[in-house]
Amino acid sequence: MKKALTIALAAALASGGMMAQAYEQGDWVLRAGATTVDPDTDSDDINLPMDVVAKADVDDDTQLGIIPMYMVTDKFGVELLAATPFEHDIAADVQGANLSVDAGSTKHLPPTLSVQWYPRGGQDGWQPYIGIGVNYTVFFDEDVDNELVDTLGALTDGLVDGADLDLDDSFGLAGQVGVDIPFSDRWSVNVGVWYIDIDTEAEITAKAAGEQVAKVKFDVDIDPWVYNIGIAYRF
Ligand code: NI
Fold first, then answer.
1. Burial (0-12, 13-18, 19+ Cβ within 10 Å), 151
2. What pLDDT does 21 receive?
3. How far apart are CA 167 and CA 85, in angstroms?
4. Distance of CA 218 from the midpoint of ligand 1 (Å)
5. Which protein residues have their CB within 5 A of the ion that is ligand 1?
6. CA distances from 70 to 15, 37, 136, 188, 191 (A)
7. The domain spanning residue 128 has which CATH number?
8. Could you tell me the pTM of the whole model?
9. Confidence class of residue 1 from pLDDT cuts 50, 70 and 90?
Protein backbone atom coordinates (compact mmCIF):
# COMPACT_ATOMS: atom_id res chain seq x y z
CA MET A 1 0.00 0.00 0.00
CA LYS A 2 2.83 2.42 0.87
CA LYS A 3 4.54 1.76 -2.46
CA ALA A 4 1.34 2.30 -4.45
CA LEU A 5 0.76 5.56 -2.59
CA THR A 6 4.33 6.70 -3.24
CA ILE A 7 3.90 6.04 -6.97
CA ALA A 8 0.54 7.84 -7.01
CA LEU A 9 1.99 10.79 -5.11
CA ALA A 10 4.98 10.98 -7.50
CA ALA A 11 2.58 10.93 -10.46
CA ALA A 12 0.44 13.60 -8.84
CA LEU A 13 3.42 15.84 -8.14
CA ALA A 14 4.85 15.26 -11.65
CA SER A 15 1.58 16.33 -13.21
CA GLY A 16 1.92 19.48 -11.14
CA GLY A 17 -1.76 19.50 -10.36
CA MET A 18 -2.42 20.42 -14.02
CA MET A 19 -5.16 17.81 -14.21
CA ALA A 20 -8.66 19.07 -14.69
CA GLN A 21 -10.28 18.37 -11.40
CA ALA A 22 -12.40 21.26 -10.30
CA TYR A 23 -14.58 20.46 -7.31
CA GLU A 24 -18.04 21.83 -7.94
CA GLN A 25 -21.39 21.95 -6.24
CA GLY A 26 -22.99 18.48 -6.23
CA ASP A 27 -19.68 16.53 -6.49
CA TRP A 28 -18.99 13.60 -4.18
CA VAL A 29 -15.42 12.81 -3.22
CA LEU A 30 -14.64 9.51 -1.51
CA ARG A 31 -11.33 9.42 0.34
CA ALA A 32 -9.82 6.21 1.67
CA GLY A 33 -6.47 5.57 3.26
CA ALA A 34 -4.31 4.69 6.20
CA THR A 35 -5.71 6.71 9.09
CA THR A 36 -3.60 7.02 12.22
CA VAL A 37 -4.95 8.18 15.58
CA ASP A 38 -1.97 9.47 17.56
CA PRO A 39 -3.07 10.51 21.08
CA ASP A 40 -1.49 13.49 22.82
CA THR A 41 -2.57 12.14 26.20
CA ASP A 42 -2.90 14.20 29.38
CA SER A 43 -4.25 12.26 32.34
CA ASP A 44 -5.33 13.19 35.84
CA ASP A 45 -3.64 11.34 38.69
CA ILE A 46 -4.77 7.75 39.12
CA ASN A 47 -4.73 7.16 42.87
CA LEU A 48 -3.83 3.54 43.55
CA PRO A 49 -3.48 1.79 46.92
CA MET A 50 -0.41 2.47 49.15
CA ASP A 51 -0.36 6.11 47.88
CA VAL A 52 0.93 5.00 44.50
CA VAL A 53 0.03 7.58 41.84
CA ALA A 54 -0.01 6.83 38.13
CA LYS A 55 -0.98 8.62 34.93
CA ALA A 56 -2.56 7.06 31.86
CA ASP A 57 -0.77 6.90 28.54
CA VAL A 58 -2.47 5.82 25.31
CA ASP A 59 -0.57 4.50 22.27
CA ASP A 60 -1.41 5.09 18.59
CA ASP A 61 -3.19 2.92 16.03
CA THR A 62 -3.70 2.92 12.27
CA GLN A 63 -6.86 1.71 10.55
CA LEU A 64 -8.64 1.98 7.21
CA GLY A 65 -10.23 5.41 6.91
CA ILE A 66 -13.35 5.80 4.74
CA ILE A 67 -14.06 9.47 4.31
CA PRO A 68 -16.94 10.65 2.07
CA MET A 69 -17.34 14.35 1.26
CA TYR A 70 -20.12 16.23 -0.53
CA MET A 71 -19.72 19.66 -2.14
CA VAL A 72 -22.69 21.73 -0.98
CA THR A 73 -21.47 24.71 -3.04
CA ASP A 74 -18.37 25.21 -5.22
CA LYS A 75 -16.41 26.26 -2.13
CA PHE A 76 -17.98 24.44 0.81
CA GLY A 77 -18.20 20.72 1.50
CA VAL A 78 -19.39 18.46 4.28
CA GLU A 79 -17.16 15.52 5.23
CA LEU A 80 -17.58 12.49 7.47
CA LEU A 81 -14.49 10.82 8.91
CA ALA A 82 -15.27 7.13 9.38
CA ALA A 83 -12.91 4.20 9.87
CA THR A 84 -12.60 0.61 10.96
CA PRO A 85 -12.37 0.48 14.79
CA PHE A 86 -9.18 1.75 16.38
CA GLU A 87 -7.59 -0.24 19.19
CA HIS A 88 -5.25 1.41 21.69
CA ASP A 89 -3.13 0.01 24.49
CA ILE A 90 -3.30 1.99 27.71
CA ALA A 91 -0.37 2.14 30.11
CA ALA A 92 -0.31 3.38 33.70
CA ASP A 93 2.93 5.29 34.22
CA VAL A 94 3.75 5.20 37.93
CA GLN A 95 4.80 8.69 39.05
CA GLY A 96 8.15 9.07 40.79
CA ALA A 97 9.30 5.66 39.59
CA ASN A 98 10.61 4.53 36.25
CA LEU A 99 7.76 2.05 35.91
CA SER A 100 5.04 1.63 33.34
CA VAL A 101 2.30 -0.93 33.90
CA ASP A 102 0.23 -2.34 31.02
CA ALA A 103 -3.20 -1.25 32.21
CA GLY A 104 -5.44 -2.42 29.42
CA SER A 105 -6.81 -1.60 26.02
CA THR A 106 -9.86 -0.08 24.39
CA LYS A 107 -11.43 0.06 20.98
CA HIS A 108 -13.17 3.16 19.70
CA LEU A 109 -14.89 4.73 16.74
CA PRO A 110 -14.38 8.49 16.37
CA PRO A 111 -16.86 9.66 13.69
CA THR A 112 -16.21 13.32 12.89
CA LEU A 113 -18.51 15.52 10.81
CA SER A 114 -16.84 18.62 9.39
CA VAL A 115 -17.74 21.64 7.30
CA GLN A 116 -14.90 22.34 4.88
CA TRP A 117 -13.83 25.38 2.91
CA TYR A 118 -12.15 24.85 -0.48
CA PRO A 119 -10.44 28.14 -1.44
CA ARG A 120 -9.78 26.75 -4.95
CA GLY A 121 -13.26 25.26 -5.36
CA GLY A 122 -14.46 25.55 -8.94
CA GLN A 123 -10.85 25.69 -10.24
CA ASP A 124 -8.68 22.85 -11.62
CA GLY A 125 -5.60 21.52 -9.84
CA TRP A 126 -4.73 21.02 -6.19
CA GLN A 127 -7.65 21.20 -3.79
CA PRO A 128 -6.51 22.35 -0.34
CA TYR A 129 -9.13 22.62 2.37
CA ILE A 130 -9.63 23.55 5.98
CA GLY A 131 -12.48 22.35 8.12
CA ILE A 132 -14.11 22.53 11.51
CA GLY A 133 -16.37 19.90 12.93
CA VAL A 134 -17.76 17.86 15.76
CA ASN A 135 -16.57 14.48 16.98
CA TYR A 136 -18.37 11.78 18.87
CA THR A 137 -16.10 9.02 20.15
CA VAL A 138 -17.57 5.74 21.32
CA PHE A 139 -15.31 3.53 23.43
CA PHE A 140 -16.04 -0.19 23.59
CA ASP A 141 -14.41 -3.54 24.43
CA GLU A 142 -12.38 -2.00 27.24
CA ASP A 143 -10.07 -4.67 28.66
CA VAL A 144 -7.92 -4.71 31.76
CA ASP A 145 -4.42 -6.14 31.40
CA ASN A 146 -3.25 -8.85 33.82
CA GLU A 147 -0.24 -6.69 34.63
CA LEU A 148 -2.55 -4.07 36.20
CA VAL A 149 -4.44 -6.74 38.13
CA ASP A 150 -1.15 -8.21 39.39
CA THR A 151 0.04 -4.72 40.40
CA LEU A 152 -3.19 -4.01 42.29
CA GLY A 153 -2.86 -7.43 43.94
CA ALA A 154 0.72 -6.68 45.01
CA LEU A 155 -0.35 -3.29 46.44
CA THR A 156 -3.21 -4.85 48.46
CA ASP A 157 -1.50 -7.94 49.88
CA GLY A 158 -3.25 -10.14 47.36
CA LEU A 159 -6.76 -8.84 48.10
CA VAL A 160 -7.48 -7.53 44.58
CA ASP A 161 -7.66 -10.32 42.02
CA GLY A 162 -9.62 -8.70 39.20
CA ALA A 163 -10.54 -5.35 37.66
CA ASP A 164 -12.79 -3.67 35.11
CA LEU A 165 -12.09 -0.64 32.94
CA ASP A 166 -14.77 1.70 31.63
CA LEU A 167 -14.35 4.80 29.43
CA ASP A 168 -17.13 7.35 28.90
CA ASP A 169 -18.03 8.44 25.38
CA SER A 170 -16.75 11.84 24.32
CA PHE A 171 -18.26 14.75 22.38
CA GLY A 172 -15.94 17.51 21.22
CA LEU A 173 -14.70 19.84 18.49
CA ALA A 174 -12.32 19.00 15.67
CA GLY A 175 -10.22 21.11 13.33
CA GLN A 176 -8.54 19.92 10.13
CA VAL A 177 -6.45 20.79 7.10
CA GLY A 178 -5.86 18.68 4.01
CA VAL A 179 -5.21 18.61 0.31
CA ASP A 180 -6.20 16.49 -2.69
CA ILE A 181 -3.45 16.39 -5.33
CA PRO A 182 -4.92 15.13 -8.63
CA PHE A 183 -3.12 12.58 -10.81
CA SER A 184 -5.98 11.96 -13.24
CA ASP A 185 -9.33 13.50 -14.02
CA ARG A 186 -11.01 11.77 -11.08
CA TRP A 187 -8.25 10.39 -8.83
CA SER A 188 -6.16 12.30 -6.32
CA VAL A 189 -3.71 11.61 -3.55
CA ASN A 190 -5.14 12.82 -0.24
CA VAL A 191 -3.26 13.98 2.81
CA GLY A 192 -5.32 15.18 5.75
CA VAL A 193 -4.70 16.07 9.39
CA TRP A 194 -7.25 16.54 12.17
CA TYR A 195 -6.87 17.64 15.76
CA ILE A 196 -9.74 16.23 17.76
CA ASP A 197 -10.75 17.13 21.31
CA ILE A 198 -11.49 13.73 22.89
CA ASP A 199 -11.88 13.88 26.68
CA THR A 200 -13.10 10.88 28.63
CA GLU A 201 -13.66 9.87 32.22
CA ALA A 202 -12.09 6.51 32.98
CA GLU A 203 -13.12 4.24 35.80
CA ILE A 204 -11.15 1.30 37.16
CA THR A 205 -13.13 -1.04 39.39
CA ALA A 206 -10.97 -3.28 41.57
CA LYS A 207 -12.48 -6.62 42.56
CA ALA A 208 -11.85 -9.41 45.03
CA ALA A 209 -13.46 -12.76 44.24
CA GLY A 210 -15.81 -11.00 41.80
CA GLU A 211 -16.98 -8.36 44.31
CA GLN A 212 -16.16 -4.67 43.93
CA VAL A 213 -13.71 -3.48 46.61
CA ALA A 214 -12.68 -0.09 45.23
CA LYS A 215 -13.29 2.28 42.36
CA VAL A 216 -10.99 4.99 40.94
CA LYS A 217 -12.14 7.63 38.49
CA PHE A 218 -9.89 9.96 36.56
CA ASP A 219 -10.18 12.26 33.52
CA VAL A 220 -8.08 11.52 30.47
CA ASP A 221 -7.63 14.01 27.61
CA ILE A 222 -6.74 11.89 24.62
CA ASP A 223 -6.81 14.84 22.18
CA PRO A 224 -5.28 12.98 19.23
CA TRP A 225 -3.69 14.17 16.05
CA VAL A 226 -5.26 12.12 13.28
CA TYR A 227 -3.47 11.64 9.95
CA ASN A 228 -4.85 10.22 6.74
CA ILE A 229 -2.70 9.33 3.73
CA GLY A 230 -4.63 7.79 0.88
CA ILE A 231 -6.47 8.34 -2.33
CA ALA A 232 -9.56 10.31 -3.28
CA TYR A 233 -12.05 9.64 -6.06
CA ARG A 234 -14.44 12.29 -7.37
CA PHE A 235 -17.79 11.31 -8.85
NI1 NI B 1 -9.24 17.89 25.47
1. buried
2. 80
3. 15
4. 14
5. 197, 199, 221, 223
6. 25, 24, 20, 16, 17
7. 2.40.160.20
8. 0.90
9. low
Q: Indicate the SS3 state at residue 155.
A: helix
Distance in Å, CA 6 to ligand 1 centroid? 34
What is the CA(222)–ligand 1 centre distance, in A?
A: 7
- Number of domains comprising the chain: 1
Burial annotation 53-63 (CB, 10 A radius, 16+ → b, else e): ebbbbbeebbe
CA–centroid distance, 119 to ligand 1, in Å, is: 29
Question: pLDDT > 70: what percent of the chain?
Answer: 95
Rounded CA-CA distance 93/41 in Å is: 12
Average pLDDT value for residue range 198-204: 97
Query: What residues make up the domain containing 135?
Result: 2-234
DSSP annotation of 85: P
Residue-wise pLDDT for 148-172, tens only, equals: 999 999 999 999 999 999 999 999 9
Say how many Å lie between the CA of residue 144 and the centre of ligand 1: 23
